[in-house]
Amino acid sequence: MLLELNNITKNYDDTVVLNDVSFSLEPGVYGLLGSNGSGKTTLFRIICGVIKQNAGTVNYNHDDARTNPDAFRSVLGFLPQDFSYYPDFTGMKFMLYIAALKGINKNFAKKRCLELLKLVGLEDVKNKKIKKYSGGMKQRLGIAQAMINDPEVLILDEPTVGLDPKERVRFRNLISSFSENKIVILSTHIVSDVEYIADEILVLNQGKLENRGVSSALVNTINGYVWESMVETDKLDEMLAKHIISNQKHEATGTILRIISKEKPSNNAQQVQPTLEDLYLYYFREDAER
Ligand code: ADP
Question: Which of 14, 32, 60, 79 is the most exposed place for a label (fewest CB within 10 A)?
Fold first, then answer.
């Protein structure tokens, strides 16, 4: 299994939304990390053939995915960000409906839908209407429907949006449990979602693939740029305005700032170990400062 994106470029009028993005993925879990507007959804839609790129190719196992879109679609599972559930359907009815849309044989569909509902922990509520499901339950149903054709490539666009911390943990465990021998790509702007679950992280910044690697290797790229400094109250505003701040801790004698800066930000600043959260702020500083 090999998914290759070669020089993907997408423009809307004069705006370049994706700029010459290339990468290749073998089985594993990949986190596409980027702030809002960085192009994640656009990239996923292009991979899935929902929209067309202006330039570049998507290849699966060395064949252009556009040449035989039905063949590629049959190995693809997709949970779009704006996924619409039918609130008056039960979970089971919804799954059967999706199975029918995908042309799955009726007898097999029932067995497969039950199996998947069990896998995502919705077996007990399969006959309840979706409008009674929690956000986490709906997301799990969304994942189940994306898995209906036992895809080799599973694409999940912001799958953890709206989940509470407990549901997030459950979601991560779910992904790990079925990711073996699949290419799973999930997008998020939440660092902790990819930190624990993804084998590799791809950083998309303003339509460009900024970096790619295992979390520790990415974090190492900002070694020496993260500092902690005790700042007196009268200097605080100046420091906050001048630097990317990843944390502030107020103490009786002042405020301890965690600062991301290539230069030593103050005389008393001490270098500290960077984290993925620091890296995110380093790349997406404009969002961080907002
Ligand atoms: P993300 O998923 O990372 O939040 P998107 O792929 O949704 O980013 O959007 C990337 C950029 O492309 C944004 O600036 C967005 O406004 C723009 N964009 C997305 N879809 C369209 C469209 N249909 N027409 C014009 N601009 C678009």
Answer: 14
CA neighbor of 266 nearest in space, from 220, 290, 232, 217: 232
CATH of domain 3-220: 3.40.50.300
> How do the domains of the chain map onto residue ranges?
3-220, 226-272
Nearest to 85 by CA among 140, 124, 125, 42: 140
Q: How far is the CA of 42 from the centre of ligand 1 (A)?
A: 6
Tens of pLDDT along 38-79? 999 999 999 999 999 999 999 999 999 999 888 999 999 999
Number of H helices, E strands in the chain: 11, 14
pTM for the predicted model, two decimal places: 0.89
Separation of 30 CA from ligand 1 center, angstroms? 21
158 C-alpha vs ligand 1 centroid, how far in Å?
Answer: 14
CA distance 164 to 244: 28
- Phi, psi angles (nearest 5°) of residue 33: -105, 130
